[in-house]
From TrEMBL:
This is Acyl-CoA desaturase. One of its GO terms (cellular component) is membrane. One of its GO terms (molecular function) is oxidoreductase activity, acting on paired donors, with oxidation of a pair of donors resulting in the reduction of molecular oxygen to two molecules of water. InterPro entries: FA_desaturase_dom, Fatty_acid_desaturase. Residues 68-333 form the Fatty acid desaturase domain. GO terms for biological process: lipid metabolic process. It holds the Pfam family FA_desaturase.
């Protein structure tokens, strides 16, 4: 069942936002050596697990070492994508002046081109979080998750389509990105003129990834080509399943709300903060779990503070929970199984027309939009809005 938060007055909303700004100011003042040491340790772990994983796959003579090597390689890819790539490309470590962790130059181990991803994720998604028709990450153009999205007969198959997406998530992310960039960048600002040119950027990156994992490393193994090919394939599949699960849990649980473009007009900073709260979901767990999620286990905190080093979200979370209790706002968190089951309930429910979806969701009128969603449009430098 959907959890209802207290409706805040304008004064309460702005007071809530001011307290959140104070938390941000306090945390940003602490950022320094501890955060630099953390990301460097994670980077070493990523490199060492990749080397060891590939070595074990390459030289394994029985299933156990092959399995261990594959799991290590999968873990390395997860660290690269989640705790390093996602957070670095949000600019969380630009202050270090270390080229390995610079948002403008970093490229990750995934078929999605980093510059295309930064446009549709950092700008479009974080500006228009859960705004139907503007946030292209909401449903990825084929999954219906709200009554605000018109039902079509093809949605009947979205549960099956999402199983396919889960196993091939990097391809969904990459193929999704170039289309958003082409659609949303004003024609006069485009450095690439046609959809084909945007698509070619994605294909070039995908080609590099395919050559690395399915040609270069397998060829190094000689007669063991099939074994290395298989190990890389399984490692990529594990990474895909993990990232799909974590990201969907952060955005599409039963209690994550949606908004319309009209509702965000004239939105204040306090309203923006509340929209991030209402449109996000967290996962509870331990420190290793948080690390392997890239701290997207704390999606609420990430949506509120996307440029704060993600490890700090664990420090912010208790303070935010206290504020939510103080202002009568629901803090959407739970264990992985509970939240992931909630995601699939929503995917299944909205594969049907609204009347059936409401019955499955257990509500009289489906999942409701906030009376007044919130966002202050994030200002971005013009060069950051165009793929370069």
């Amino acid at each position: 069942m959907k959890t209802i938060s207290k409706k805040l007055s304008k004064e309460e909303t702005e007071a809530f936002g001011a307290e959140l700004e104070a938390i941000r100011t306090d945390v940003m003042a602490k950022i320094g050596q501890e955060d630099a040491d953390h990301i460097r340790r994670v980077h070493r772990a990523y490199r060492y697990t990749e080397i060891l994983g590939r070595g074990l796959i390459h030289f394994s003579f029985e299933p156990i070492t092959f399995t261990v090597g594959t799991l290590l390689l999968a873990g390395s890819k997860i660290l690269n994508n989640m705790e390093i790539g996602h957070n670095v490309m949000h600019g969380q470590y630009d202050w270090m002046n270390d080229p390995r962790f610079n948002s403008r130059t970093f490229e990750w181990d995934i078929v999605s081109d980093s510059k295309q991803w930064k446009f549709y994720h950092n700008y479009m998604h974080h500006t228009f979080t859960n705004v139907v028709g503007k946030d292209h990450d909401y449903g990825y153009h084929f999954t219906r998750l709200s009554e605000e999205q018109k039902w079509k007969p093809a949605h009947i198959f979205q549960s099956i389509a999402n199983v396919f997406l889960a196993f091939n998530f990097q391809w969904g992310v990459g193929g999704h990105g170039y289309k958003v960039e082409y659609m949303e960048i004003p024609k006069k600002q485009r450095k690439k003129k046609s959809l084909k040119e945007y698509r070619d950027v994605f294909f070039k990156k995908a080609e590099l990834q395919l050559v690395k994992d399915y040609l270069f490393f397998p060829l190094l193994a000689g007669l063991n080509f099939p074994k290395v090919f298989l190990g890389n394939f399984i490692a990529n599949m594990i990474r895909n399943l993990w990232t799909y699960s974590i990201i969907f849990c952060g955005h599409f649980t039963e209690n994550a709300e949606t908004f319309t473009p009209e509702q965000i007009e004239g939105e204040t900073k306090g309203e923006w903060y509340i929209r991030q709260l209402k449109g996000s979901s967290n996962l509870s767990g331990g420190n290793f779990f948080y690390l392997m999620t890239g701290h997207l286990s704390h999606q609420i905190e990430h949506h509120m503070y996307p440029d704060v080093p993600a490890k700090r979200y664990r420090e912010i979370a208790p303070k935010l929970q206290e504020l939510c209790e103080k202002y009568g706002q629901h803090y959407n968190t739970g264990g992985f199984i509970k939240q992931f089951a909630s995601v699939w309930k929503r995917i299944f429910a909205y594969s049907f027309p609204d009347r059936i979806a409401r019955k499955i969701m257990g509500t009289a009128e489906g999942i409701q939009l906030s009376a007044k969603p919130q966002i202050t449009i994030v200002e971005a430098k013009s060069e950051e809005l165009v793929s370069v």
